[in-house]
Amino acid sequence: MFQTFDAKTTPETAAPRMAQLRDVLRENGFDGFLIPRADAHQGEYVVARDMRLAWLTSFTGSAGFCAALLDEACLFVDGRYTIQARDQVDTKLFSIEKFPDVKLGNWLVDALPDGGKVAFDPWLYTKAQIEEIEKHINGRGVELVKSENLIDQIWEDQPQAPLDKMHAHPMEYAGKSHGDKRSEIAQILREAKQSGVVLTQPDSIAWLLNTRGTDLGQTPVALCFAMLFQDGRVALFIAPEKVDDELRDHLGADVTIYDLGDLSAELIRNLGPIRVDPRTTPIAILDILQNGDVKVDFGDDPITLPKAMKNKVEIDGAITAHIRDGVAMCEFLAWLDRYDHSEPLSEIDVVKSLEGFRAATNQLRNISFDTISGAGPNGAIVHYRVNEDTNRTISNGDLLLVDSGAQYLDGTTDITRTIAIGKPKREAIRAFTLVLKGMIGISKLRFPVGLSGREIDAIARAPLWSAGMDFDHGTGHGVGSYLSVHEGPQGISRRSNAPLREGMILSNEPGYYKEGAFGIRIENLIYVKSAPAIRGGDDRDMLCFETLTLAPIDLRLIDRKNLTRDEREWINAYHTRVFETLFDLVSADAQDYLTMACAPI
Q1: CA 525/CA 413 separation, integer angstroms
Q2: 171: confidence class by pLDDT, cuts 50, 70, 90
Q3: Is residue 584's pLDDT more than 90?
Q4: Is the pTM of this model over 0.90?
């Protein structure tokens, strides 16, 4: 099993750890310390060594931060994690605020009316993040000061950093050599008259050099830093234990490998201008450059956009990966459909079964995130992670929300299905149908070139809005190619300003959550492609989406009378495609299930 079910944190540990932290604050003359859920690479996922937020607060969500002061503390989480935070955290010790509704800077000013010094680790914060906080505290008495990491000073059994090997990612999956990629990005630097760019995000470096790793487990990258120069050369900064001769041969003469300890000296060897992404580069690296009199140009990581626009090989790989994953999903759904309540079935049983069907493909490299298996009220916890303490037996009448994904060499998958266990309630059918209508709306959409996810997000929400309902997460996120299951700059949400482009892969996952009762989410992966011309339409470049995910949507949860004719036709066409693609690839039991599950409505 790739997934484990131990309860990684407990609220009872927070009080003594907070007491230790406050002792250190007093010793250093600080009034507070900021603890983000981040590492020096600013990725969503972090290794055990960098789980400082969870260690202090016991909150294990993938987004959040804490402000710990001498006499109070606050955990900030977004709408996905409000229920989870209340369940995991000692609320007598931590207040919980929802961001971005509540700004950290404003909270600090209110909590420190007489002013004070609040420390932060410059390796864990970017220029953009600190400027956003300072915008709300300037002139109001609160000062942010750089510091060594105070959590590291009191975390006695802090895990060691992983030292697994970085390895080559074959051309048959990458579709473009790393030499061609380096030349392509170097041209961007030359046009901007920049001598190089600092690269801090491991997935950018993995894409650029056609490498992968296992440091983050479910995200197949090796933790490292790099600099790309305008002539296409690269300086790679990585722990020497992660490098072997096979990797050196793959990288070639134009990639020079340095120890991580050489980073500071090498950063200031060039006069610049050096490109730095203010949203992803640690302030510590910016300080090294500026203290070394290196000219800095601020700009986006130039790899983010090319990485998001998958080439033909990557799209073909994604299609193949989703057929394989569709087989595993259908075997799983058929297994679940045979459940007759004669034996107890738990959320953990569901996770183990699904991973087993994926492992049976013999091509599973890892899961792409911990499977969310939430029955009944647990399904309303958007990013619920089942453990031995929370594991719930699935009961007749429950809705079961299963959000899962896989990492294959040819692609990354992410799929959510909500399944009725027994006869569903009318309230659940109504909500499910509204969510489905939004998902179909995105799936069928044609839109002009240049639109961003922000401009189409409302299409997924409109059916829910019409009923006075909504959900507190984005409609869709970008997905990598055997890389991170959450990738930018593409997305479908109110915060997604990047124009959608051909080759981008996104999720399409509206939902609805009734606290204490049930959760609903339906998710397919889609990719952006050029839309065919329509006779009689304008001569205007348009884009559309092609659905990658192949698995039945539970017909028992659909109120057919609340679907339009076009929506029914979409469901039937989708299920016909699922049936025809997968039928000959699955077991006899799964064939029987597919025949029933894909019946036209």
Answers
A1: 7
A2: very high
A3: yes
A4: yes
User: Does 1.20.1300.10 match the CATH number of domain 167-302?
Assistant: no
- The segment(s) of the chain belonging to CATH 3.40.350.10 are 11-154, 167-302
Q: How far apart are CA 94 and CA 79, in angstroms?
A: 17
pLDDT at position 135 is: 94
The SS3 of residue 381 is coil
Distances from the Cα of 39 to the Cαs of 49, 81, 126, in angstroms?
Answer: 9, 20, 11
Q: What is the largest CA-CA distance in the chain?
A: 75
- For 191, the token pair is 């046009």
**pLDDT digit string, tens, across residues 403-415:** 999 999 999 999 9
Query: CA nearest 79: which of 405, 513, 386, 574?
Result: 513
Predicted local distance difference test score (pLDDT) of residue 461: 98
CATH of the domain spanning 11-154, picked from 3.30.450.20, 3.10.50.40, 3.40.350.10, 3.30.930.10: 3.40.350.10
Structurally, at CATH architecture level, domain 309-597 sits in: Alpha-Beta Complex (3.90)
Q: Give 350's contacts (C-beta < 8 A, 6+ positions apart).
A: 336, 371, 373, 394, 400, 402
Joined together, the tokens standing for residue 292 give: 């070394």
What share of the chain in percent tops pLDDT 70? Answer: 100
